């Protein structure tokens, strides 16, 4: 009876290990298929974008890139930040001292040491007057002006 119980325990353990392996395989396959269209890719000291097969789609010429967010990618070129679309076309000029990805259709950026927000066309929608700012969330963004937050 004791040996029967041990065999059942071993069979159960083997079954659990197999199921775990199967689940992990399915999960990894799903992850692979869910890769973004364009993936940041570094060649030497420069960045660009490649597809899932590591074919370079956007030339590696940028100092820094981020993943595409809301259809645009934040990139840095010659110390300035701007945004490109998935074809590599410059959509928002490289003129910002610092910039962050889009959140709720707006990107927070720094120009001449002041924070403001731009839309996806590069239009200034919230003036560059703040000492600090956070991304929009649920329609609001925390900002600092003259040592006061709002």
Strand order of the largest sheet: 4-5-6-7
Work out the radius of gyration. 24 Å
Tertiary shape: extended
Along the chain, the helix and strand elements come as: HEEEEEEEEEEEEEE
The helix content is 10-25%
Query: Mean of residue pLDDT?
Result: 85
Poorly predicted regions: 13-23, 25-30
Class computed from helices, strands and strand pairing: alpha+beta
Number of helices: 1
- What fraction of residues sit in β-strands? 35-45%
Termini Cα gap: 72 Å
Number of strands: 14
**How is the main sheet built?**
4 strands, antiparallel
Overview of the structural elements:
This protein has 150 residues and is an alpha+beta fold. Helices cover 21% and strands 45% of the residues. It contains 1 helix and 14 strands; from the N terminus they run αββββββββββββββ. It has one helix spanning 2-33; strands spanning 39-43, 46-50, 56-62, 64-65, 73-77, 80-84, 90-96, 98-103, 106-111, 114-118, 124-130, 132-133, 143-145, 148-149. The chain has a 4-stranded antiparallel sheet, with no helix packed on it.
